[in-house]
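**User:** My hope is that you can spare some time for a protein that puzzles me. I have put the entry right below:
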Amino acid sequence: MSERSVAPATILLTGATGYIGGRLAPRLLERGHRIRCLTRSRRKVLARPWASQPGVEIVEGDAGDEAAVAAAMSGCDAGYFLVHSMDAAGHEYRERDLAIAESFGRAASAAGVRRIIYLGGLGETGEGLSKHLASRREVERALGRGGVPVTVLRAAMIIGSGSASFEILRYLVERLPVMVTPKWVHTESQPIAVRDVLHYLIAALENPATTGRTLDIGGPDIWSYAEVMREMARALGLGRRLVIPVPVLTPKLSSLWIHLVTPLGASIAQPLAEGLRNRVVCRDDQAQQLMPHRCLSIPEAIKAAVDRRSSGDVETAWSDAGTMPGDPHWSGGTVFIDRHHLETGADANAAWRAVCGIGGERGYYAADWLWRLRGRMDRLVGGPGLRRGRRSATDLRVGDALDFWRVTAIDPKQRLELTAEMRLPGVATLTLEVEPRTEGGCTVTSTARFRPRGLSGIAYWYSVLPLHGVVFRGMLKGIVRSSEAAKA
């Protein structure tokens, strides 16, 4: 990033808890800008390490509420539109994104904002675009209908620790020595490292010459997806992967395969798979001319992502952007509760660290085969399963995805609440609590709550209840063992 003096600006940031927005926010603050985060969940933003810094303001509201967005934009110089509804069911994301973009553009005009910056999708222009890329073009146009100049940055595959593209590639090459793929595997692409995307997003804000421009951004390499897969295998220290393209795999079938093999759900995988048929290469180098910068090569970008993941230093993850359930409202209906507790002489701090270590690659301390079976069943019916893992092996914050759970509350060193995002006939939470004892040591408690929907929900609860003693009490025993081992 250039070191030239730039007047601080006040920025409205949407998507502050998403993959890109969560990384953009602290870098804007480092450059001296003030950010106003528009979010559906204040708690989720407050869980970010940068949220308490001077210059951060949090406004709770929906990006689709035009009046709320206009009020949030009041006094702002610019707005970042980093909203995407691709996790919506079916093709609803296209209509929802278009409506939100039009509303956002009108709100920006009403608030007197001077410009909008949007991160869209790189690809061919004209006919033949996938529905996903066509939607990105529609959003570009819709943002500008309010009359505020829009700077559009178009990017292809973004490579970075925790990105959807990185996770798809990693899972495919780790699990499949031989890959039968659609013919799009030979489509050319110009990937870009996430750190370079962040450079362009900030440089576009600080360079007035980018106002109203549509700029293609990409790294220095143009490779086929097959070549990128082979490079990923090399970076992971795996043997050469055999890629066999066949003409009969449709985007629908490809998305189902991605859903079964990788952490991504089918609703996200399908638009991504459809977009892979389009060649995504920069049309020119205007972005480089306006915002000079040395971008990482594909091998450099993949190595950086692999190193970050190996060290556990993943700043944001693709799953961060999921809608976070609010605290469930348990009144007015049947609520089943199953509670277990164990006492230990271990220090409460050690027990809390063990509680915060559940899930991901570490597992659940006991009966992991049952957890894996439940995860596979969930994937088969379209749920997230266990493959989302967790952003960090040691740190949890409100809004984090943890396998098929979402972290919905944390009272540090005392209470962790997880809300289930698996496919269920009801609403489920799991709460883990650590309570110090006056005579020393602590008590660890797990509480599973389930609010059923109809008879199917009641039947589900009683069908799994016999396993709770194995799963949850076993998990508590594992937490206690881990705590006492840390004490020793």
